[in-house]
Amino acid sequence: MKRNEHHFLKPETVENTARIFKALADPSRIKILYLLSQETCSVNHIAEMLGMTQSAVSHQLSLLRNLKLVKYNRDGNTYYYTYNDDHVITILNQVIEHVACE
Amino acid sequence: MKRNEHHFLKPETVENTARIFKALADPSRIKILYLLSQETCSVNHIAEMLGMTQSAVSHQLSLLRNLKLVKYNRDGNTYYYTYNDDHVITILNQVIEHVACE
DNA sequence: ACTATATATGAACATATGTTCATATATAGA
DNA sequence: TCTATATATGAACATATGTTCATATATAGT
């Protein structure tokens, strides 16, 4: 095939695609999102469940928040986080199943 | 939910999942895989199409090869690379569509 | 107002990652 | 055997990334 016979992705599309995969490319974030796929959780609850420090969890939630992959509802001092992108959760589960059955 | 009411992923599953997403978390590799999803390509062809050096392409193919996401057939001096994991290609296309329609 | 609690955030640090450059390897052709 | 071609690979480098530590912010209870 020659150059103009290929379909090329727009640079913007490539960057945005990489951004999504980068968000999922870390064990801590995978565990956080998998947990949130089962239940809305406070920051401390996530930290306890996953054996992470509060700070580490908060930094990762900040990243996921910026990508709009999670959102939160505040109740007093407590922030309850929820996933915010069904499609990304679906893709996460697909890959988990993909690697689990091999 | 309490600890034992959650489903937890095995550490191995988390690691393998992260490995797949890491492979897809780079613009160069996204472009390479997207190109290979359309056509079997030699290393030089990939480099020319994507405006990358031969060395950079080769390093990335080496990484994708180790993860068994691509394979190659050799013909003399030329290595023809093909994708080797339909499921991963499907997931790549899903995310591309996901980010394209927003 | 004071204290405790929950979370966010910035700086610093170590590690991982992607590219480049130089070079090695291997095959084909003369 | 000499040369050209195609690819792989190691070292070096700059940048990105994830955690920790210290601290800031904000709310609730007394």
From TrEMBL, chains A, B:
Residues 9-102 form the HTH arsR-type domain. Keywords: DNA-binding, Transcription, Transcription regulation. The keyword DNA-binding applies. It comes from the Bacteria. One of its GO terms (molecular function) is DNA-binding transcription factor activity. CDD domains: HTH_ARSR. Coiled coil: none annotated. InterPro entries: ArsR-like_HTH, HTH_ArsR_DNA-bd_dom, Metal_resp_trans_reg, WH-like_DNA-bd_sf, WH_DNA-bd_sf. PANTHER family: ARSENICAL RESISTANCE OPERON REPRESSOR ARSR-RELATED (PTHR43132), HTH-TYPE TRANSCRIPTIONAL REPRESSOR CZRA (PTHR43132:SF6). NCBIfam families: HTH_metalloreg. This is Winged helix-turn-helix transcriptional regulator.
